[in-house]
UniProtKB/TrEMBL annotation:
<comment type="similarity">
    <text>Belongs to the FAX family.</text>
</comment>
<dbReference type="Pfam" id="PF17171">
    <property type="entry name" value="GST_C_6"/>
</dbReference>
<feature type="region of interest" description="Disordered">
    <location>
        <begin position="360"/>
        <end position="384"/>
    </location>
</feature>
<dbReference type="InterPro" id="IPR045796">
    <property type="entry name" value="FAXC_N"/>
</dbReference>
<dbReference type="Pfam" id="PF17172">
    <property type="entry name" value="GST_N_4"/>
</dbReference>
<dbReference type="InterPro" id="IPR036249">
    <property type="entry name" value="Thioredoxin-like_sf"/>
</dbReference>
<dbReference type="InterPro" id="IPR026928">
    <property type="entry name" value="FAX/IsoI-like"/>
</dbReference>
<dbReference type="InterPro" id="IPR036282">
    <property type="entry name" value="Glutathione-S-Trfase_C_sf"/>
</dbReference>
<dbReference type="InterPro" id="IPR012336">
    <property type="entry name" value="Thioredoxin-like_fold"/>
</dbReference>
<feature type="domain" description="Metaxin glutathione S-transferase">
    <location>
        <begin position="260"/>
        <end position="322"/>
    </location>
</feature>
<feature type="domain" description="Thioredoxin-like fold">
    <location>
        <begin position="115"/>
        <end position="208"/>
    </location>
</feature>
<protein>
    <submittedName>
        <fullName>Failed axon connections homolog, metaxin like GST domain containing a</fullName>
    </submittedName>
</protein>
<dbReference type="InterPro" id="IPR033468">
    <property type="entry name" value="Metaxin_GST"/>
</dbReference>
<feature type="domain" description="Failed axon connections homolog N-terminal">
    <location>
        <begin position="1"/>
        <end position="104"/>
    </location>
</feature>
<dbReference type="InterPro" id="IPR040079">
    <property type="entry name" value="Glutathione_S-Trfase"/>
</dbReference>
<dbReference type="InterPro" id="IPR050931">
    <property type="entry name" value="Mito_Protein_Transport_Metaxin"/>
</dbReference>
<dbReference type="Pfam" id="PF19333">
    <property type="entry name" value="FAXC_N"/>
</dbReference>
Length: 397
């Protein structure tokens, strides 16, 4: 219970009647001790003398408070204005259209720093479904990204989204898989999403936070401050969730050991095959590609990059094969394909294509790419890329 009390000497204050205190009234402009059946929890700072005189110059403290409060109010107003402007701009109609809600494009050239956002967008391209990106920052009710809207219906979670699209639109990359292959695909998916993901998140958002911070795309006069806040906030979330998961209770060296074991397992399962389940794409390829993408393109000089571009080169070839086929606008310097201690990466930003369909992609871009061969004599990046269109077209039948 609170009570607003009037004091003869200095004005009013707010007292919590749940506690009894004896307060030296020097703060109130007197040398006496005043007993209170309560505890002072608020006292005005606008009076001369009292607290302000005890702390120093009244005018100096006034100016400091005014400037600090004004700066905070200005920052809050700016952020609110930007948020409302973005949401108004990004309001999209989902009637007969897939609206993909995900994080903004980073400045490093990769489509996303989130493996799950990259997984779903890559999957939409694999099944050749047009979609519209929305970078309005709205999270799902579970507090996660990505999620979609289709015919004004919202669907959350990449696994449930893929099942929904299969049921509603009749597209699936797994129709040709045997029950054993489907079981293997699920086991690989769970290893990546429930285990390997946390090791790569640790490398991205904890061990390489400074480099990751430079990749975040934040505009406006307070962009540097906001970038710092966002990156450190996300780093704290990752560490807290890793601890809750259990993997965050290990040392950094142990986390990297677990990461390496997962990557070696993937390399062994892939072998010299074109895709994880053989010569044709399946849904698990979108998952594997998106979780290996950070090691390939957003963690320069890191241990996973050294591993994937060195000893586990078949995984790098696999990632590049999928990138070239489904992300023709995502340009990568071929000189950076193998690991080197000195990295020289461009800061080209991936354009937002908006409504996208893979069949609208220019094949001229792909045909101009230098042809590279692996030791078996086959194309490193898909010599039969053009002939694979029949594989996607079959999904629409």
């Amino acid at each position: 219970m609170y009570w607003r009390a009037g004091l003869a000497l200095t004005g009013s204050c707010v007292i919590d009647l749940g506690q009894t205190q004896i307060v030296p009234s020097g703060f109130l402009g007197s040398d006496d001790q005043l007993p209170f059946s309560g505890c002072i929890i608020a006292y005005p700072l606008h009076h001369h003398g009292g607290i302000m005189s005890a702390l120093g110059s009244d005018s100096w403290w006034r100016k400091t408070l005014y400037l600090t409060g004004g700066a905070l109010l200005a920052a809050a107003a700016y952020l609110l204005h930007e948020l409302l402007a973005i949401r108004k701009e990004e309001e999209l109609d989902s009637k007969d259209a897939i609206i993909l809600h995900q994080f903004s494009r980073p400045k490093c050239g990769a489509p996303s720093l989130s493996p799950f956002c990259l997984k779903l967008e890559t999957y939409l391209r694999m099944v050749d479904l047009p979609y519209k990106n929305s970078f309005d920052g709205r999270l799902s009710p579970q507090g996660k990204m990505p999620w979609i809207e289709y015919n004004h219906q919202q669907v959350f979670g990449t696994e449930f989204i893929i099942d929904f699209l299969d049921e509603r639109l009749g597209v699936s990359l797994n129709k040709g898989l045997t029950p054993q292959e489907k079981a293997m695909s699920r086991a690989i998916t769970k290893m990546l999403e429930e285990h390997f993901y946390w090791t790569i998140a640790y490398c991205q958002w904890v061990d390489n936070l400074e480099e990751t911070q430079k990749m975040l795309s934040v505009s406006g006069p307070l962009s540097d401050l906001l970038t710092w806040i966002l990156s450190h906030l996300n780093s704290g979330i990752v560490k807290r969730e890793m601890y809750g998961h259990g993997i965050g209770r290990f040392s950094a060296e142990e986390v990297y050991t677990l990461m390496e074991k997962d990557m070696r397992t993937l390399a062994t399962l892939l072998g010299d095959k074109k895709y994880l389940m053989g010569s044709k794409l399946s849904t698990v390829d979108a998952t594997v590609f998106s979780h290996l993408a950070p090691a390939m393109w957003t963690l320069p000089g890191s241990r996973p990059e050294q591993l994937i571009k060195g000893e586990l080169i078949n995984l790098a070839m696999y990632c590049e094969r999928i990138r070239r086929r489904f992300w023709p606008e995502w340009f990568v310097d071929l000189e950076d394909f193998s690991y080197d201690d000195v990295t020289d990466r461009s800061d080209s930003k991936l354009p937002d294509l908006g409504l996208y369909s893979r069949t609208d992609s220019s094949r001229d871009t792909l045909s101009r790419t230098p042809h590279t061969s692996d030791p078996t004599g086959h194309s490193l990046y898909d010599s039969d890329m053009d002939t694979e269109c029949s594989e996607i077209d079959a999904l629409k039948c």
